[in-house]
Murein DD-endopeptidase MepM (Oceanibacterium hippocampi), 584 residues
Amino acid sequence: MNQRPNWRERFFPERQIYLRSRGRVRFLTLRLGHQIGLVALLVLGLAGLARGAYEVVFQDSLLDARGIEIEILRTERHHLADSLDTTRQELVRANDELASGYSKLQELIEFRSKLRSDLDATSSILEAETARRQKAEQRGGRLASDNATLRRKLQAAEQRSADLARKLAKLELEVAAAGEDRDTTRNRLAASLRDLTELRDKLQTALADNRRRDARLATLAGELEAKRSLAAQEAAAGERLRSRLANLEAAYESAKRKSAALTAELTEREATLAGVIAQRDRLADTSSDVSSRASELLTQLARTTETAALARDALHANQSRLAAERARQEGILQERDRLRRAVAELEDTVDIIRRSQTNLLARVQEQTLAGVAVLEDAIRLAGLDPDSFVTEPPAETIGQGGPLTLTGVSAGAADDLGSVMSDAGQIELILARWSGLQAALSQMPLARPSDNGYISSLFGKRRDPFTKRKAYHSGVDIAAPKKTPVLATSAGTVTYVGSKGPYGRLVEIDHGAGFKTRYAHLYKTLVKRGEKVQFRQKIGLMGSTGRSTGSHVHYEVLFQGKNYDPSDFFEAGRYVFKGGKDDG
C-alpha cells in the first residue's frame, strides 16, 4: 500500500530548473529547504511592501490631521490675538475712566472741602451773630428795664408836677390875699418902691442869668448826652437824667446862695422900714420862691419829657435793630440749611462715584488677574518661572506708606480716597506684572518650526541613531519631506547662519528676553545674519545636512544659555492659543 505524502512533499516537491546556454544544458535542483526559504523571503518582502504602503497611507492621514490641527491653532491664535487686543483696549479705557474718575473725585472732594470751609465759616458767623443777638437781647432787656424805670420816673415827675401845680395855685391865692393887704399899704411904700424895684430888677437879672446858665448847662448836657448816646444809647438815658438832675440841683443851690446874698443886701437897705420891708421881703421871698420852684418844675418836666422821648426813640431803634437782626439770622439759618443740603447731595454723589470706581476697579482687577493666571500657567508649562520675567517696582515705590491725610479733606473722604488709591495701586502692580508676562510671552517661541511633519526624536536622553548608545539630545527632531519650509517660531534677530559641524546648515535666532532658537540640518537657508525676522517667517528649507539620518529639522530652545524641552513650549503655545483652557 502506498504511503500518503505529507504537506511538505505535496506543496514543495523537488523541482528542477533547466538552464540552456551556448548549446549546453544545465539544471538547478530546488530541494525542499530551498523552496521554503524562497517562499519565506517572498512573504517577508510582501509584508515589507504592505507595511511601507500602510505607513505611507497612515503618514498622509497623520499629516492631514496635523494640518487640520495647525489650522485650528492658527484660528485660535487669531481669536486670542483679537481677545488680547480687546482686553488691552478695555484696560486702556479702564485706565482712562479711572484717571477721569480720580480727577472728578478730587474735584468733588475739593469742592466739598470748600463747601465745608464755607459752612464752617458760616457757622462761625452764625455763632457770632447768635452771641450778638443774645447780647442785643440782653441790652434790649436792659433798655426795656430802663424804659420802665424812666416811665415810672416820668409818672412820678408828672405826679410831682401836678402836686406843684396845686401848690402853685394855692400860693397864687395867698399872693392874691397878700396883694389886698399890699394895696392898703401901697401909699406908704411909694417912697421905697424905687429901691424895691431896683432890687427886684437886680433879682430878676440874677434869676435870668441863672435861667440862661441853666439853659446853657442843659444845652451842654444835651450835647454831651447826644455824644454819649452815639457810643452807648442803651445805658445813656439814666445817666443823662442823673446828670441833668445834678446840674439842676447845683444851679438851684447857686441861685439860692445868690438870692440869699441879695436878700441880705435888701434887708440892710430896708432897715428903716423894718415892718414894711419885712412884710415885703416875705411877700417877695414867697413870690420869688414860688416862681423859682414853678420854673424849676416846668424845666424839669420838659427835660423829663425830652428824656422819655429819647428813651422811646432808643427803644424803637433797638426794636428795629432786633427785628433786622432776627431777619438776618433767619437768612443765615436758611443759607446754612441750603449749604448742608448741598453738602449732603455732594456726599451722596461722591459716594456713588466711589462705589462705581470701586466696582470698576474690582472688574478690572478680576480680568487682569485672570489674564495674569493664563500667562503664568503658559510660562510654567514651558518649564520656566514667571517671576523671572517680572521686574521689581522702582525703589521710590517701595517701603512707602502711612495714613493718607489730605489738607482740607475730612477723615471719611480721606479714607475713601485712600482705599481707592490703594486698590488702584494694586491694579497698577497687577497690570505691570501682566505687561511683563505679556512682553515675555510675546518673545517666547511657542509655535512649531514647521507646519508639516512629526516629532521623530524627543528632548533629553535617547539612543543615538549612529552609535546606538544612550546620549543627550538637546532639542527635538521634526521629520518631514525634503525642502519642507522651516519657519521662525517667534520674531527676533538672526545671530548665526552657516554650517556648524554636526548641526549642518544652521540658523540661530535671538528673540530677546534671554530666548534663542536653533534650526539645524537645513537643506538651504533663506536669511542672513543680522536680519530681523517676523513670527512664522520662512527662514530655510528642511534637509539632512550634517550628522543626520534623513530629512528633518533639529530644533532647539535656549533660555539664558540653557536648553529647554521644545515640546513644553509647544504645549504652552497650545494652551495660550486655546485661551487658557487646558484639555487635560
Notes: Helices lie at 7-11, 32-184, 190-231, 236-269, 274-381, 411-443, 566-577. The longest strand covers residues 515-525.
